[in-house]
Amino acid sequence: MVNAFIKKDIKLEVIENFSILEEKNDTANIIWIDMISPSIEEVKTVESIFNIKFPTKQESEEIELSSRYWEEDNRIEINSYFLINHDNAALNETVSFVLQDDLLISIRYKNLESFNTFIRKLLNSPREFKNGYSIFCEIIDIRIDADADIIENLSKEITKIRKHVFTDYANDDEEILEKISSFEDLNMKIRENLTDKQRILSTLLKSSKYNDDKNKIPIMLKDIKSLIEYTNFNFERLDYLQNIFIGILSIEQNKVIKMFTIVNVVFLPPTLIASIYGMNFDILPELHWEYGYLFSIGLMILSSITPIWIFKKKGWI
Fold it and tell me: What is the pTM of this model?
């Protein structure tokens, strides 16, 4: 699907059927072409009209970090991550942008909420966006705000699981470790996402193009820097939480081992005594004694009580 946004003075026209645009021959006033999972024919049509070569989805995903921003004489090509987060399962989706004079062309293969939010804003206030460059900056700014919301929600989830660890975590060991692991993965993807945008915006700021409209980029870079610092803080919290949780598990395991050790020690002397009196040798004087049985039982009880008394006195139990 290809949507073309045509601006004439303060009015904005949206054409969803690109073949109509070809018939109207009105490409000069287009400020944005949004391509969503485009077909091969749609891609070739846009390439032919604007003399642009687009990378395939696989090519855009395999582009090295150092090559995700490319600038030529009249064109800037950008490949940027957009985070998809669902139930703390994170995925960085690559979106390709082409800035050519006043035109922006975007290619994406997922329905991203950041674009939906911007389209509503564009339709409500078209006069705020004079060209494709201002559209690109606004889309990135909306995505940064969305990343900030995800970081805030993640921080709340970390606080919840921290309270859970220090209160009631019985029989939830694997679940807690899985949550910590998923939070770390999400935080890592957010940081990767932010670092990618930081690199792109820093390079765009140094560009000689669009010099008259770069006031917004330093603000976005400042926001990104603050968010990256917050992700570092979340990494520290998760690492601390994991260490504490593993420490608590070790203490609980030691208590269990200690309990079984005490049980073994308590029942070892009676077992030894019972074994001795079960030998049935005539040389054992107690075998023919009238009170021999009671004596052996009493001796076993005494041998069980003595270790418990010693452990309590030393404060081991």
Answer: 0.75
